[in-house]
Amino acid sequence: MIMTIVEGFDRIEKKLDRMGRVKDFMNGDELLDNYDIARLLNVSLRTVARYREKGLIRYYQTDDNGKNFYRSSEIQEFLLKRGKKK
C-alpha cells in the first residue's frame, strides 16, 4: 500500500513537471482546451477538429493522454484573420 501511494506521488510529480514545461514553452500564454475553443468560437467540437485537420488553428498535444491545447494568442490571430475574410 505504501508503495502504491509513493507511485501515485511519482506520477503526479511527473505530470506537474510536464505541465511546468508546457507553461515555460508557452511563455506564460494562457492554454485553452477543445471545449474552451468550441465555446469561444461558438462552434462544435467536430468543427474544432476540422480546423485542426485543415491547419487553420495550431495546437499542442500532451504526451500522456494526447489532449489538445491551444495558445490564446494564436486563437486571437485566427479570429482576426477569420474576421478579415468576412
Helix content: 55-70%
The number of strands is: 3
Shape: elongated
Stretches where pLDDT is under 50 for at least 5 consecutive residues are none
CATH architecture annotation name: Orthogonal Bundle
Helical stretch tally: 4
CATH topology: Multidrug-efflux Transporter Regulator, Chain: A, Domain 2
Largest sheet: 3 strands, antiparallel
Subunit arrangement of the protein: single chain
Rg result: 16 Å
Question: Helix-strand pattern, N to C?
Answer: HEHHEEH
Q: In percent, how much strand structure appears in the residues?
A: 5-15%
Strand order of the largest sheet: 1-3-2
CATH C-level label: Mainly Alpha
> Structural class of the secondary elements?
mainly alpha
Total domains: 1
Describe this structure in a few short sentences:
This protein is mostly helical. The chain has helices at 2-25, 34-41, 45-53, 72-85, and strands at residues 31-32, 60-61, 68-71.
How would you characterize the overall build of this protein?
This protein has 86 residues and is mostly helical. It has a single domain (2-85), classed as Multidrug-efflux Transporter Regulator, Chain: A, Domain 2 (Orthogonal Bundle). It contains 4 helices and 3 strands, in the order αβααββα. It has helices at 2-25, 34-41, 45-53, 72-85, and strands at 31-32, 60-61, 68-71. A hairpin with a 6-residue loop joins strand 2 (60-61) and strand 3. Helix 2 crosses helix 3. The model has no long low-confidence stretch (mean pLDDT 79).
Relevant terms:
9% strand; three-stranded antiparallel beta sheet; Multidrug-efflux Transporter Regulator, Chain: A, Domain 2; mainly alpha; 3 strands; 86 residues
